[in-house]
Write a structure and sequence with these properties.
By secondary structure, the chain is an alpha/beta fold. The strands form two sheets. The protein has a six-stranded mixed sheet with strand order 5-6-7-3-8-9, sandwiched between helices. It has a three-stranded antiparallel sheet with strand order 2-1-4, with helices on one face. Helices cover about 30% and strands about 25% of the residues. It has eight helices and nine strands. It has a domain of about 170 residues: Rossmann fold, CATH 3.40.50.
Length: about 250
């Protein structure tokens, strides 16, 4: 079943075109990687799929309907670590428990299933020993794992990850890779942006090169061999065209 479908999607921030007639499909049980230079529209693409950004034209469907018409908790979106405010006094367990809120009725209390989902997410991201530590006192990798755990506790039908391996250590990356591939094997569709291409074949079933439009799309080895990403990365460095998307850190 097709989980995500974008057709001719254009997104603008005032006069800046962030996405230009972009097409994308993602099936259930598939992990699609999105790569491109800074300002290429990667984060905007995830926000559009999540229903946080409204395109000026085109079609966005998640499980056959516009994302804002889905039940709360259907989509879990994990932003870049740099985009998160870390100064509020919450423990790791508190943050992960927030993932259950979309699934709960107003004024209802945590059920046994809610607690089990939180504990399972903490265990999956190897955070059990850190559950009572405040997030401001975590390393970057631990913070990233905490927010992925919050998304997993949500029990979503679609997972969106914005550069989850940026600035993390090898152990954290391995833990995230093992988790994501396990979820994909169970049927969860995952859309993930990244700058790291060294392990693209391990992470992704398909790889897409984006620079406002789709420049290449296919299995990771074929896309990397095509040189599409290397070409636009070189162009942005040589000509000074590295761009920053609104609301993101380069």
């Amino acid at each position: 079943m097709t989980a995500v479908r974008l057709r001719e999607v254009t997104v603008r921030y005032e006069r800046l075109v962030a996405l230009d007639k972009l097409d994308l499909t993602l099936d259930e049980g598939q992990c699609l990687g999105i790569v491109g230079p800074n300002g290429s529209g990667k984060s905007t693409l995830l926000k559009t799929v999540a229903g946080l950004v409204t395109p000026v034209s085109g079609i966005v469907e998640v499980f056959g309907v516009p994302p804002r018409r889905l039940e709360p908790g259907t989509i879990a979106y994990v932003p870049q670590v740099e985009a998160v405010e870390w100064n509020f006094p919450a423990s790791v367990a508190d943050v992960v428990a927030m993932g259950r809120f979309p699934r709960m009725h107003p004024l209802s209390r945590f059920s046994r299933r809610d607690r089990q989902a939180v504990d399972s997410a903490l265990e999956a991201l190897r955070l059990g020993d850190l559950r009572n530590r405040t997030i401001a006192n975590l390393s970057g990798g631990q913070q990233q794992r905490t927010f992925v755990a919050r998304a997993i506790a949500q029990e979503p039908r679609l997972l969106l990850l914005d550069e989850p391996t940026t600035g993390v250590d090898a152990a954290t990356e391995d833990a995230l890779l093992e988790l994501v591939r396990g979820l994909v094997k169970q049927g969860l569709p995952v859309l993930m942006t990244t700058h790291d291409l060294d392990r693209a074949a391990d992470w992704f079933d398909r790889l897409m090169v984006v620079d406002r439009r789709v420049l290449a799309n296919g299995d990771p080895e074929t896309v990397l061999a095509s040189g599409a990403y290397a070409g636009i990365r070189e162009h942005s460095h040589v000509h000074g065209h590295a761009r920053t998307e609104p609301g993101t850190v380069p």
